[in-house]
Amino acid sequence: MGSVKDLTIKRPATEDLEGMGVFKFTDDYSIFDYGKMPDIIPNKGEALCRMAAYNFKELEKQEIKSHFRKLESGNEMEVDIVRVLFPQKGELKPGMRNYLVPLEVIFRNSLPEGSSVFKRLAKGQTTLEQLGLEKMPESGEKLSTPIMDVSTKLEPTDRYLTWEEAAKMACLNQEEIDDLKAKALEINDFLTKKANEIGLEHADGKVEFGMNPQRELILVDVCGTLDENRFLHNGVHISKQILRDYYKTTPWYEVIESEKAEGKGHGEFTTPSPLPKELINITSNMYKSVCETWTGEKHWNAPSIEETMNQYKAFLEKNKEA
After folding, report:
1. Which CATH number fits the domain that encloses residue 198?
2. Is the pLDDT of residue 1 over 60?
3. How many separate domains does the chain show?
4. Residue 176 CB neighbours (<10 A)
5. pLDDT tens string 297-319
6. What phi and psi values does residue 170 have, to the nearest 5 degrees?
7. 313 — phi, psi (to 5°)?
8. Which of 60, 225, 48, 87 is nearest to 167 (CA)?
9. Distance CA 91, CA 133 (A)
10. Which 8-state DSSP code applies to residue 196?
11. Which residues contact 145 (CB under 8 A, 6 or more apart)?
């Protein structure tokens, strides 16, 4: 079970045999590690599911193995399942097979406003050298070479790691870490090219991997959706980032940031206000329009990406004046 998608297990995984299950993508959303937010975004789950299924099929043509089996319905996909072993509990040991690699691999092609890189640099949590940068980046800067980051996956709050720490935590040798990086960059290249074809900029995204029973790296979870990746249209966010940006203007955001800084949790002591109905409608159209354009399949006859973004920009202007 997750904040935005549910998993039904049809066959449990063992070290020697992948399990089988079904992901059900809901219309819920989650931001800032808070968990399920108060509203739903109509058709968001189906849009994510269809977009993710399309990406799995296209990446398979490039010999990127994944846990994807088939699309069962609009918002459900059948997948192979690996075991979830927690390094912090001593459950994961070198040489094991068929497990979730407990890492999130992040690639960054540009640094749009809202990128965590700026906050981490300001707080001294990373350095230009660690990021492979020669000078302090500017908001909106496009990178000549993608930045590769890695963070934890199975901890209460994700934290960034060095690649040496990541390899040790995930019980991967140098060859496997190199393979993981190469696969992540190949996926990034595919998504960037696809985004360009439909008039979008692919700013950044994340991928997750598993080790199958043959101890081969496979792509798991989902990739290349508006929840896992940040895309921009003419410099304006067209992803889940628009929901983060809205809530950053509310008192709730200040409270949860203060709670995190004080080690109190992730918003347990306050409740976010609902989204404006107009923004819910715009966000729903955003997910649908990008899905239809990306996959080439019409399911809702949603407004075009251009129309949807014009609606969003009008919403921003109106709220700025208010």
Report:
1. 3.30.470.20
2. no
3. 1
4. 18
5. 999 999 999 999 999 999 999 88
6. -90, 0
7. -65, -35
8. 87
9. 36
10. H
11. 132
